[in-house]
Amino acid sequence: MKKYLEILRKCPLFFGIEDESLIKMLDCLGARVESFDKKYTVFAEGTPAKYIGIVLSGSVKIIQIDYYGNRSILSSVFPSEMFAEAFACANTRSMPVSAVADEMSEIMFIDCDHILHTCQNNCGFHQQLIYNLMKDLANKTLMFHQRIEITSKRTTREKLLTYLSIQAKSAESSVFDIPYDRQELADFLEVERSGLSSEIGKLVKEGVIKNKKNQFEIL
Question: How far is it, in rounded angstroms, from Cα 193 to Cα 195?
């Protein structure tokens, strides 16, 4: 586990925990690491919601597919970030979404019960872990409301501009990269790809934005 320390230090779950304690903690929590090829399903919709995933390398997309086969991208998860923690903590019977490796990825899995219930060793780090987990869940709630703000807009143009505005604010720059290609961005915004491409073209022509692949600039 030592080789993952640099990434794990940045994980919200382990804030405030020293390296020596972190190594012991991972053993106590029964943490395990698995590798996944690109497009491999890490968690499938309908599987038991039990484990918290932490991306160590690569990236993961959280997706939802409706009855008619339409795909929505809910979020992207990068190294040091967690996923599935809300469902595991809520003791959800089964996952309502799927997690798919976006590239060759290494994922650490921790049984949520091992965090929420102190072990027989009565390790002192458990209270810090629970605090960190609750803080992460609060931040994820804010991100969820942010997504609702985007997808609730009536037109493709409004959805796109709201999303780009949020990304620019997050990057603290008018020039920024987004983690999606054109089809993935359409899936995230819940719009048709053709309409999205048309709207991007119009905004570029009007001098509102500049765009090159997944890089945008708000003018």
Answer: 5
Q: 122: which 2 tokens?
A: 């009565």
DSSP 13: G
Q: Which residues pair with 109 in a beta bridge?
A: 32, 53
Q: How far is residue 194's CA from residue 217's CA, in Å, rounded to a whole number?
A: 21
d(CA 155, CA 190): 11
Which residues sit opposite 63 in a β-bridge? 73, 98
The pLDDT profile of the chain, 219 residues, written as one tens digit per residue, is 678 888 998 999 888 888 888 888 888 788 899 999 999 999 988 888 888 999 999 999 998 887 777 788 888 899 999 998 888 887 777 888 899 999 999 999 998 888 877 666 556 677 788 888 888 888 888 888 888 888 888 899 999 999 999 889 888 888 899 888 888 889 889 888 898 899 999 999 999 988 888 889 888
**218 φ, ψ to 5°?**
-90, 120
Beta strands in the chain (DSSP E): 32-36, 41-43, 51-57, 60-65, 71-77, 82-83, 98-101, 105-111, 175-177, 209-212, 215-218
Taking the C-alpha atoms of residue 144 and residue 116, their distance in angstroms, rounded to an integer, is: 23
Q: How many CB atoms lie within 10 A of CB 21?
A: 16
Domains (ranges, CATH) in the chain?
2-143 (2.60.120.10), 153-218 (1.10.10.10)
Q: What is the pTM of this model?
A: 0.77
The number of C-alpha atoms within 13 Å of 12 and in the hemisphere containing its C-beta is 19
